[in-house]
Fold this protein.
Amino acid sequence: MVQLTDVNAKLIKARYAVRGRIVNRAQELEGKGRKIIYCNIGNPQALKQKPLTFVRQVLSLLEYPALMDAPEAALLFPPDAVKRARAILAHNPSGTGAYTQSAGIPFIRKAVADFIHKRDGIPADMNRILLTDGASKGVQAAFTLLTNRENDGYMIPIPQYPLYSATIELYGAKQINYYLDEKAGWQLNEKELMASYEAAMKTGINPVAIAVINPGNPTGALLSHENIEMVIRFARKHKLAIMADEVYQENVYAPGKKFVSFARVMHDMAETEVTLFSFHSVSKGFLGECGHRGGYMEVRNMSDDVYAELVKLQSIGLCSNVDGQIVTYLMVAPPEKGDESHELYVKERDGILGDLKAKAEILGRGLSAIEGMHIDIPQGAMYAFVRFDLPHPKDTDLFKMSPAERARYDAARDEDYCLRLLEETGICVVPGSGFGQEPGTLHFRTTFLPPKEDIQALVEKMKTFHAAYTAELQGR
């Protein structure tokens, strides 16, 4: 029998906070009949978001093509859904049960290139687009391609999405933290990037890439054009590749704000030396099709021989799943004006995004009104990274703690807070230490995906809980 001592040590060290101890306890409580408000992970359809009708209609027809010729088809499916399904089958006659090209079905990659061109007004090459099982597989492919030596390191934002830290650990690379500027709305700070880079170099780490999440996870922040320019200049100066995680690009709520892609800014700067990996996914936005595991990776400024190695890596896994490829196609090529499904599609899309915007405002305004909690209304994505203040127990001497001891102390405090919050209120959030945070600060990450009434209940329960928890600490 395999023992824990036989297991890959890198796997044991890897951590993935959004599905950790607190979530396991939440599931135990739910099994005992407790109502749990799950705010730990961006899984929209698990939290009552309905799938888009057009997407599921086309998938249904492709999974069982005989439906297209059934007498009931006209009653069940609008003509444009049937037409779209027939067109997909014409391009991919082997259907959903056969392997595709390793890079993905060509007409879908062409549709992704057209989507990027329409979104950014810049050229896009279908032969630099790979279809992936969600954005996560694209990120992991980039890590596999770039990690060449034991001391290779990756600059990642703190706070970050744990995919990055966990993958770095699994691949035996080095994690280089750079802190986002909370006081400046979680933008990137060039001085902080430089300090992070120089600290890594002094310890013998070779930085090879910088990861950026825009809109932010867990912060919900939206990067400005100027901030992205700064990152690109920094990457050029230090010969870094850029990994642009842009899966929340449809999730923008702040008035007057809009998503700007790294590809667009790079084109505006006429940048041809910095390699860019950009990632998108069907799991977020307004589709919320997490279970279909679809997405794409676009690559810019990469030679043919290097790109061939990336395609080879994809071929080792044969191809991404076909249903995910199709959902990616439907994301980038939705019903157009004049199609029978267009009006319903727009209504469903705008309804989902409008609801998310309203819930972001309820959460931001509600939690920021609680004494000892700090949060702006999220500008984008599906999350808020909430800072909260707690008094220290009377016998605590912070000055005697080493940095490592202080980190463990803070992690124990935010984990206890989130676990007690779950036990007493049924609210499941993730401790900030699972994403990384400035030393001496405490946070938790919450989504605003649950139904509106649950978000309103969350705010009220949080107010009562935080006051009671703080008062208990003050009495110790």
Notes: The chain has 16 helices and 13 strands. The CA atoms of residues 145 and 309 lie 8 Å apart.
